[in-house]
Amino acid sequence: MIQEKGYTRSRQTVLSLVILSVLMVIGAGIFLAQFHYNPAVLQKNAFLPGPAEDKALSRLSTGNFFKPLPAGIRPLTPAETFDRQNLSDKIDGKAELYLSAGFKRLISQRFKDEHKADQWMEAFIYDMGTVQNAFSVFSTQRRNDATALDLAQNAYRTSNALFLTHGRYYLEIIASKASENLPGPVKVMAETFIGNTPSETAALNESTLFPKEGQLNGSISLIAANAFGYEGFDKIYTAEYQLDGHTLMAYLSRRKTPEKAKEMAAAYTAFLLAFGGKNNETQLPQKGARMIEILDTYEIVFSHGPYLAGVRDAASADQAKMLAERLDHRLKE
Q1: How confident is the model at residue 65 (pLDDT cuts 50, 70, 90)?
Q2: Bridge partner list, 72
Q3: pLDDT surpasses 50 at 39
Q4: What value does the CA radius of gyration of the chain take, rounded to a whole number of Å?
Q5: How high is the mean pLDDT of the chain?
Q6: Residue 239 binned pLDDT confidence (cut-offs 50, 70, 90)
C-alpha cells in the first residue's frame, strides 16, 4: 500500500512538472512576441491604408499626393498620420480648433530643397470630413499678409507658406524660412496635390447670401463652434463690411427649421443682455429683431425663415440698421 501511494505521488509530480514546463514555454513565447510586433501595427504613417470606415482618406497615400515632385525637391522624412486622439501631439495649442470643426485625420511630411542646405518645408493635409469644415479652419486662420492665388476657390500664399482647401481637405505647405524661390516649387506641389486628390463639389451655403455692397474682399469666414463667445452658436458664417470708415460684421446661419432659428436668435439676445448688453428700443423693419448696445457697439439679431442673422460691431445704430436691412433684403431675394 505504501509503495502504491509513493507511485501515485511520483506520477502526480511528473505530471505537474510537465504542465509547468508547458506553461513556461507558452510564457516565453508571449514574452518574445512582444519584441517582434508586426510592422504594420507599429508603423503609423500614410503609406498604410486608413481605417476601413474612412474610405475617402484610405484612397490617398503620400505615394501620389505630390508626385511628381518639383525638380530639386525630395522627401526628407517619412509621412506621419494623426487622428482625433493624438492630433495635439503634432499641433499642440491649436488642436481644439480643428477638433471642433469636425477633424478626421492629418497626414504630414517634410520635404528637402536639394539646392539649399538650410531650406525644408512641411506639408499638412487635414481631412476635415466635409467641404464646409475645411473652409472653416481655412477661413478662421487666414493670414493678414495673404496674397490670393487662383489655384482653388480658397487659396492664398504668404512669404513662406501656401494654404488652400480642396473638397474636404485643408492643405498647408509651410517652409522653414521665407525665400524668393519658394513660391515656385510650393505652388507646383499644390497643383499636383489638387490633380491627384479626388474631391467633392462644394454645395451652396450661406456665404453666397451676404450682400456684396461694402463687403471686404476675403472676409467671409465660417466659425464652427462657440461663435462670439456663445456656446450655442455653431456653423456661423460671417462677413466684414466697411461703412463710413468703420468695420462691422454681418453673420448668417441656416438652422433646421424657422422655429429653431427664432429660438437661437432669442437665446443669443438673452446671452448679450446677461453680459452687460442694453436693449435699444429703436424700431426695426425685421419682424422680431432686437437691437442691443454692448461695449460701445450696436448689434442687431433677427431671423428670417430658417436663417439666423445679425449684425455686430457697428459704431452706430444707423450703421447696424443699414447693414441689417441689406442682409434681410438678400435673404428675401
Answers
A1: confident
A2: none
A3: no
A4: 29
A5: 84
A6: very high
Sign of CA pseudo-dihedral 91, 167, 260, 267: positive
Preceding amide of 258 cis, omega within 30: no
Q: What is the pLDDT of residues 99-158, one digit of tens each?
A: 999 999 999 999 998 888 788 999 999 999 999 999 999 999 998 888 899 999 899 999
Nearest 10 degrees: Cα torsion 96, 63, 158, 135: -40
pLDDT at 20: 54
Sign of CA dihedral 71, 73, 74, 80: negative
> Looking at this protein, which amino acid is placed at residue 47?
F
For the cut 70, the answer to whether the pLDDT of residue 40 exceeds it is: no
**pLDDT of 8:** 44
Q: With contact defined as beta carbons under 8 Å apart, do 301 and 310 qualify?
A: yes
Residue 193 CB-density burial (10 A; 0-12 exposed, 13-18 middle, 19+ buried): buried
- Walk me through the domains of the chain, giving residue ranges and CATH numbers: 55-196 (3.30.200.100), 206-332 (3.40.1000.20)
pTM assigned to the model: 0.76
